[in-house]
Design a protein that fits this description.
By secondary structure, the protein is α+β, with helices and mostly antiparallel strands. It has a single domain, classed as Gyrase A, domain 2 (2-Layer Sandwich), CATH 3.30.1360. The protein contains 3 helices and 4 strands, in the order αββαββα. Strands 1-2-4-3 form a 4-stranded antiparallel beta sheet, covered by helices on one side. Strand 3 and strand 4 form a beta hairpin. It is globular and about 40 Å long. Bound molecules: the ligand C[C@H](O)[C@H](O)[C@H]1CNC2=NC(N)=NC(=O)C2=N1. The ligand C[C@H](O)[C@H](O)[C@H]1CNC2=NC(N)=NC(=O)C2=N1 binds next to loops. It catalyses: (4aS,6R)-4a-hydroxy-L-erythro-5,6,7,8-tetrahydrobiopterin = (6R)-L-erythro-6,7-dihydrobiopterin + H2O. Keywords: Lyase. GO terms for molecular function: 4-alpha-hydroxytetrahydrobiopterin dehydratase activity.
Length: 97
């Protein structure tokens, strides 16, 4: 698959204004999700894994008890691309804030 282009800082800040649950910069975008329990957090990660596998695009995930920290970046491009925005939108559809 061809490597998607990195977004410019302007493109990224425009996109982030439509993704209020996400913050970050051209090095990566972040969202933190708190679930009611550890098992709910694990289930949320499992649901995100389905999306990630379907897209072949994977978030970096840090689980602390019932809080999930996500960082999304296109590793192969060395920055944020449109694929990251697509993944963020899919995650928000799955886990609305
Ligand atoms: C071969 C496969 O497409 C690549 O290894 C994919 C898999 N998932 C990925 N996910 C993310 N976030 N960045 C990547 O560069 C990436 N590469």
């Amino acid at each position: 698959m061809p490597r998607p282009p990195r977004l410019s800082p302007d493109e990224l800040s425009r996109a982030l204004s439509e993704l209020p649950l996400w913050s970050g910069d051209t090095g990566g975008i972040r969202r933190t999700i708190e679930l009611p329990s550890f098992r709910d957090a694990v289930a949320a990660i499992d649901a995100m894994a389905d999306v990630a596998e379907e897209m072949d695009h994977h978030p970096d995930i840090d689980l602390r008890w019932r809080t999930v920290h996500l960082n999304v970046v296109t590793h192969s491009a060395g920055g944020v691309t449109d694929l990251d925005l697509q993944l963020a939108r899919r995650i928000d559809a799955l886990l609305p804030g």
